[in-house]
What we know:
Layout: H1 3-17, E1 22-29, E2 34-40, E3 46-52, E4 61-63, H2 81-90, E5 99-103, E6 114-118, E7 124-128, E8 134-136
Antiparallel strand pairs: 1-2, 1-5, 2-3, 3-4, 5-6, 6-7, 7-8
Amino acid sequence: MTYNELLTATWEAAKAKEPSAELYECTAPQGVAYVHSVFRGTNNTTLMCNAYADGKVTDVASFDSPWCEDVVIHMPVKLTLEEANDLLSEAGYKADWYQVVLRNPLGPTNSNPEYIYSYHDGDNIAVDTFTKEVTPL
Length: 137
C-alpha cells in the first residue's frame, strides 16, 4: 500500500471512532512500512492510529489532551507522497531521507500542509502540497 492509502486507512479508522476526527499529521519512515497518524478528536482529545503496509490498522487510541503543534489538514491531500518525492528529486535533493511527515505546523507563519523530509545530517526539506515549492527549513 502507498503512503496515501495508509493515511486514508488511518483516517477512516479515526472517523469510525469519532466521525468529527480531523487530520493533524502523518509520519512514515523511508520505505513506508507503516504510517503513524494523529487526529483531532472531540472535546480537545487527540486520536492516534497506525496502518501497516500489509493493510493492518491498529485500534485508534484516544488521549484526553489536545494536540497543540499543527493546524488541521483537510482530506483528501491534494499531492501524493510519490508526487512530492518526484518534486524533491527534481529540485536536486537525494532520496536518502529517513522520515517524512505530512503536517501543517502551527507557526511561526501561516502555511500550507507540507511533506517534511528529515535527513540524517539534520537537514529538513519541505514540499508544499498546494504550491509544490521545495524549500529547506
